[in-house]
Design goal:
Layout (H helix, E strand, L loop, with lengths): L3 E6 L4 E5 L15 H7 L1 E7 L9 E2 L3 E8 L1 E6 L2 E6 L2 E5 L4 E7 L4 E7 L1 H6 L9 H6 L2 E3 L2 H17 L5 H24 L11 H16 L6 H7 L4 H12 L3 H19 L5 H7 L5 H12 L3 H11 L1
Antiparallel strand pairs: 1-2, 1-3, 3-10, 4-9, 5-8, 5-10, 6-7, 6-9, 8-11
Helix pairs in contact: 4-5, 6-8, 7-8, 9-12, 10-11
């Protein structure tokens, strides 16, 4: 029997639904709620459980703060593998990939989702000052006292959402979320478990590559392009990334682009295959088709048809 998740939108509308509406394999887990997120700007998803069956990566389209309330979850965040435990917190930035794995039976997390479009429009503190450190080591641990402060912040956000005047509500939410993220940044800096060990040069090269990929995947799919970004030779750059991650640069590039492509083919029925290919940086539909088929064994159109048939 699947666990049931409770979604608490910030205007205190409570909806009960199965967790697989939140997390669908090879899909944006928030897809069914994107319209709600755009309308409300901030949504809190509570009691999200049992993500072990999600084995395909998904790329976040919004800014997400995830707080582990109970249990544990094995997860890969971009290139970083970790076990997400009780009182751990992480920030997932737009265009970054997450692959949840095995979890404990009592696993329970809260997700705070902010519309990326709204956050940029309101000039929120995303990304925060030391965003690279968050990307290099995304999760950190909260003390029980810090967790109580975090819970209080969530209550304040929900109370502010009761204000009917949208302009006033947005202004208050903007200030509260700004302060909340800055508070989390302060807590993260105080976490004694975060040593400088993970900031060794090879790891910096690998994680810097992933950030460059997020920002430039539409521009280039060549190893040399990303090596040049760090003033490294392609051979040394490729060897370093492989030694740190166990995956070749070309495979990282392909995985990221194909994950984005699959998500769009599944969710963006307002776009043609050609338009999706163009949005991913392919000059022609045939270039996109060849690349997609080489990586997946099927064409983008056939993949989309199969997905629709299986709904």
């Amino acid at each position: 029997m699947q666990k049931v998740g409770k979604i608490c939108t910030i205007d205190k509308i409570f909806i009960l639904l199965h967790a697989n509406l939140l997390f669908m394999a090879e899909f944006n887990p928030l897809f069914k709620h994107l319209e709600l997120i755009e309308q409300r700007h901030v949504v809190v998803f509570e009691h999200v459980q049992d993500l072990s069956y999600l084995v395909q990566p998904w790329v976040s389209t919004e800014f997400i703060i995830a707080i582990c309330k109970k249990g544990w979850l094995k997860v890969r965040h971009d290139m970083h593998k970790t076990i997400f435990r009780q009182n751990d917190i992480t920030m997932i930035y737009p265009d970054h990939a997450v692959v949840p794995g095995e979890s404990s039976e009592d696993f329970d997390i809260t997700l705070i989702v902010a519309s990326h479009k709204w956050a940029k429009q309101e000039h929120l503190a995303f990304p925060i000052q030391n965003v690279m450190e968050h990307i290099l080591h995304p999760e950190f641990h909260l003390t029980n006292e810090q967790m109580r402060s975090v819970d209080h912040c969530l209550e304040v956000i929900r109370d502010m959402s009761l204000i009917r005047d949208e302009a006033v509500r947005d202004e208050l939410l903007k200030n509260q979320l700004d302060n909340f993220v800055r508070l989390l940044d302060y807590y993260r800096a105080a976490d004694p478990s975060l040593s400088v060990d993970f900031l060794t040069n090879p790891k910096r090269i690998a994680y810097r590559f992933y950030q460059d990929l997020v920002e430039n995947y539409k521009v280039s799919r060549e190893t040399k392009f990303y090596a040049d970004k760090q003033n490294l030779t392609p051979k040394y750059f490729g060897t370093t990334v492989y030694e740190v991650t166990g995956i070749h640069v070309s495979d990282w590039i392909a995985r990221y682009i194909i994950t984005k492509a699959k998500m769009m083919l599944q969710s963006r029925d307002d776009l043609t295959v050609a338009e999706i290919g163009h949005s991913l940086g392919f000059e022609t539909p045939s270039d996109f088709g060849r690349y997609f088929k080489r990586q997946t064994g099927t064409s983008p159109a056939a993949y989309r048809r199969k997905f629709i048939e299986e709904l």
